[in-house]
Amino acid sequence: MRRLLRLLRILLVVYRHGLDQLALEGFRHRWVRALARLLALGRDLSTPRGVRLRLALQELGPIFVKFGQMLSTRRDLLPRDIADELALLQDRVPPFDSDVAVRLIEKALGHPLEQLFSDFERTPVASASIAQVHFALLPEEHAGVGREVAVKVLRPGMLRVIDQDLALMRLLAGWVQRAWADGKRLKPREVVAEFDKYLHDELDLVREAANAAQLRRNMDGLGLVLIPQMVWDLCRPSVIVMERMHGVPISQVERLREAGVDIRKLAQSGVEIFFTQVFRDGFFHADMHPGNIMVSLAPQTFGWYIALDFGIIGTLSAFDKDYLAQNFIAFFQRDYRRVAELHLESGWVPADVRVDELEAAVRTVCEPQFERPLKDISLGQILMRLFQVSRRFKVEIQPQLVLLQKTLLNVEGLGRQLDPDLDLWSTAQPFLRRWMRSQVGWPALREHLKREAPRYAQYLPALPRLAHQALEHGVPSRERDLYRQLLAEQRRTNALLQGLVGFGLGVLAVLVVLALWTSRPL
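The structure corresponding to this sequence follows.
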């Protein structure tokens, strides 16, 4: 009954904002489209469809807001106007009661609050749909990150609410995929499954703490960014405690300028941090909007970035990194043939696509970019346009690349908010070229051999056995079965021959004994 009432409320909000028109007009059956025109009578639907969708998601609550935010990154699936409007969704949620937060913290950590912290600020400093954050002080005897900490606690009952709304989303996705004309291409079931994984990952705060620890280790020594250290003995799936970071929100540009921060250098540092995480580490902070970034004013780390909130992390394989670097370099050399070949070499394009047709489509989209100054060219927009071209050729866009494109748009927007004249390509190009050089030639081969040497030392003695196993398993199944039957027959034949030989030898021995016995003199 609760699920039915929730579904009725969703349908009511959909009707109020005219989203039924977006849905029904896309159905295959003419009578359904006729019903859509009939339902539109007497309603003012002049507001753009993207705005109506955004307002409806905000009214349906935080889980649907997060779903809209995730959808805004799938520009390979959505029309541009809808994706742009969904990108405006903000995760603003009133905080839940502090007494409830205290009870949740005590239950998760197994001790009264007074034993855990010498001071605890009951008023939360930040609140979102999944969790909220309180500042606190650790007891003096607690060693490690220092006394000032931030405590992040999950909202109560989140798992139940999320599972209910996800069940409804899966139901609606099934309807859309079966009945909508564009349902197969939009892959609504796969999108909901991706959102399911995305949300459940965020619900495990220990996972977020582990992401922060990995990022902190990767960034150590770069001298550009600070990552909070985790208090591991106070980290649980529903509560994590971390070092409190002091800084100025990066959106307060005037305050940073007054403090003496070099804004132009700050913008360039953000680009370097991002490309280091992507191409050197293949592990990047994928939620770099201004709300999650501060700037340090401490003397030792003056002008460094401070990153927060590590629930969404992107990862790239060596293949992904090579694909991206070659795409960017080919684009700025206007080598559209190479861009098309890279799409084909990736294996994500159907085999029947002609490379010259894909090259022409890429040229049509990308060539107008060069009519503007380099500082106005957006690498994020380039990726987005390539994804749009890819959609026409039925390219399977990989989720990790979509997440990267969304993060790159965030980084560009942040950089140009700080420095409108930021030339992202001039900042990124030397890094990309250095990375490409490190991947080819003798230095790269030497590093690869050094990295793989322990594994080679383990495999070399076992190589003959492994080769035999590989050859045996390489035989087709039918031939392998026949080979095994022949071996079995051979073993049986050998056993029979051995038995006959043994019997013959036994008979011969008996005959010899009898002959000797009979030839003995009386």
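The chain has three domains: 1-91, 93-245, 246-444.
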